[in-house]
Amino acid sequence: MSQSQRVPLRKRVRVKTLLLALLSVWLLVLFLTLLLDQARDWPTATVGDALLERNAETASANAVTSVVVSYRGFDTLGEVTVLFLAATGIGLLFSAPRPPSEPAAAESEIAAAPPNEMMITGIRLLFPVLLLLGVYIVLHGHLSPGGGFQGGVVIATAFFLRMLADPDFRLDHTRLGALESLSGSGFVLIGLLGLALVSTGTFLGNFLPHPVASMGQLLSAGVIPLVYALVGVKVGAEVGAIFQDMRET
Amino acid sequence: MEFSASPVWFIALPLLAAFSAPLWTRWHLLDHLLFGVPLVLLILALGLFPTVHEAPLLETIVIAPPLGIHLHLDSASLLLVTLFCFAVTLVAAFLWLGATDSHLRGRRPFVLILLLLVGGNGLVLTGDLFNLYVFLEIAGVSAYVLSALRDDRPALEAGLKYLIIGSVAALFFLLAVVLVYLQTGQLNLAAVAREFAAIPPAMQGLIALLMLIGLGIKSELFPFNFWVPDVYRGSDPAVTALFSGLLVKAFLFVLVHLAVLIWADPAVARVWLMTLGALTLIVAELAALRQDDMRRMLAYSSLGQIGLIMLALGFFSETTTAGAFFHMINHTLVKLLLFLVAALLLRRCLSLRLEDLAGAARVSPLAAGLFVVGALGVLGLPPFGGFMSKLWMLQGFAEAQRIWPIALILFAALIEAGYYFRWIRVLYAPVAPAASADTKTTPEPWAAYAPLLLIAGLMLLLGVAPFLLETSVVEAAHALLDRDLTLQSVLGVAQ
């Protein structure tokens, strides 16, 4: 008999962990039962349906965008703020100067190895295409699926690939900060302009002309593409700053 | 023009200032703006009191309420917004005049403190359930980063703990929001309140439980508040002053506001909230007796007061709720004072442990004196505001012929007296202070004490002249408890 089999069962299985797991499973089953048995059918008149019906008044061909940027633009402003906070927090944790320790030194040796030739060439070809794709996704947010968040991340990824290919490539933190602050302030200022102008009178109101006739064209939906472009710049700058921070450690 | 008096400013102005922080860094305006922005908002809030006295102010964003997001400024939310702006102004003044630590100066704390104000204001102002979640995240994430600001071991531990537990809380709340939308198809709070009774009872219970766990963690109620002392111990005292004075108050308000609006049966909600409040009060006060670190002691004392406020709010009677609002104001003042004193003592004595603080009153007599003032304020002794607010709550319970909350509150005050006097005795112990204490640091400039003296003066003023706040506090209680009024002002029809 091997050593492990002679150890009594209650020592091999931690009772506390087992009980905790059982409790979690029981709670999950209870939760699912409630969810499946007790739930009402999907209600017929939801806010989403009502907004969809009114979509024409924003003149944005992509109904999701008119919800995200116009009807619930305030939430989007909040989400952008949360991303900004996360970038600030990561900047705080990663940018602090630390005393050089053993693992860090070993890591820098690995990083010193030059990147693969295949990768350098591939990324050189891919970089402009990715950048263009990102800009396209941002600018066509009100026409087709996509928008500021998705396009911004694609743009940041393009720069991340550059970082992989070229160890000396750096994103300048001051410039990223300036871009981020310009686009963020721009979003709030557009919102406040909507509040100040008599024609709209609400925060984030669509004060530019947005005739329904032009729906589907690049220049349509008034202020929506403008806001989404700002979101794209902001998201791109923030995600880029996060990549840069993580690389510097 | 409506432009000048819109509640959007309470969110947009600090947000704009925080986003354009690189500009202010270049122009060396960070300190001025961190103080100036909340001050401007405080003046705006004070100017809005006569308007809101007439009728609650509704600010539509893009599309009218049942479909879109709106901000709801009634007497209750205005009172809390004023309190938050005041708290941030005071802490900013303290940082500007007195803080020498590099991690409390500069761009990051500027951004984080202003966004914490955005989160707190948004939480009490918004009239939309998902928007509430967004502000919960803003307030939460800025608090996680703020608690790790010092970037040393205890601070990082505090930040990590807060991040994990806070994210779990946010997930619970988000799940509740999803279920509400699946069941009612509405996100506007008033519309949800109207439809909520149509949901099957078991589902109602599940949603209420998820919200209670999520917001219970955030507002530091008893079974969910095990993390609080560690976070308060690791963070900077000036930052914890904001947590205790601003953040918890916002979440408490949200919890009670949702309970009033959504939970159809007030009797059930009353049992739950009062039980949680009473348990928080007793457990925290008993735990505070044994603490040997001033920050942990203050954290437990803060938890105890939160429990007390919850107990009074959860009773849903107008007198106790008015008393609870008054006590929120007093408690914010007291805890700002105590935590800022702790910040000064920490800088002077380099430690906040009981044995290291022996005789600290000789090195910094003014700080020790202010600690005594704060302690008397927490206990609710006569010349201070805490006396009037505790009396008010007790009166409310006495009117309703409830004896056990009265006994509980008095018993808790007795325990509080026990541990605060223990600390006071140590501060004034007739021994020479530790050698490290007085030689290394230079005395604080007098200006650093100015915000603290202002708080002490206000506590005294509220104790002597509580009638200054009486109308606004009673109106706030009325606005919080009157469900039909809220529904009517948003949807145009009462249920």
UniProtKB/TrEMBL annotation, chain A:
Q: Where in the cell is it found?
A: Cell membrane
Q: Which GO terms describe its cellular component?
A: plasma membrane
Main localisation: membrane
Which residues belong to any copy of the MrpA C-terminal/MbhE domain? 44-104
The membrane topology term of the UniProt record is: Multi-pass membrane protein
Q: Where would I find the Na+/H+ antiporter MnhB subunit-related protein domain in this sequence?
A: 119-239
Q: What keywords does the record list, in alphabetical order? A: Cell membrane, Membrane, Transmembrane, Transmembrane helix
Bilayer-crossing residues are: 76-94, 125-143, 149-165, 177-198, 218-237
- Keyword set includes Cytoplasm: no
Does the keyword field hold Transmembrane? Answer: yes
Sequence similarity: Belongs to the CPA3 antiporters (TC 2.A.63) subunit B family.
The protein's name is Sodium:proton antiporter
TrEMBL record, chain B:
Start and end residues of each NADH:quinone oxidoreductase/Mrp antiporter transmembrane domain = 127-415
Q: Which Pfam families match?
A: Proton_antipo_M (PF00361)
Transmembrane ranges? 6-25, 32-49, 76-97, 109-126, 132-150, 162-184, 196-217, 238-263, 269-289, 298-316, 328-346, 366-383, 403-421, 446-469
**Does the entry feature the keyword Transmembrane helix, yes or no?**
yes
Question: Has UniProt tagged this entry with the keyword Ligase?
Answer: no
Places the protein is found: Cell membrane; Membrane
Superkingdom is: Bacteria
- Membrane-related topology note: Multi-pass membrane protein
Q: Which GO terms describe its cellular component?
A: plasma membrane
Q: What keywords tag this UniProt record? A: Cell membrane, Membrane, Transmembrane, Transmembrane helix
Q: Which residue windows are coiled coil?
A: none
Alphabetized PANTHER family for the sequence: NA(+)_H(+) ANTIPORTER SUBUNIT D1, NADH DEHYDROGENASE
Q: Which family does it belong to?
A: Belongs to the CPA3 antiporters (TC 2.A.63) subunit D family.
Protein name per Swiss-Prot or TrEMBL: Sodium:proton antiporter
The species is: Allochromatium palmeri
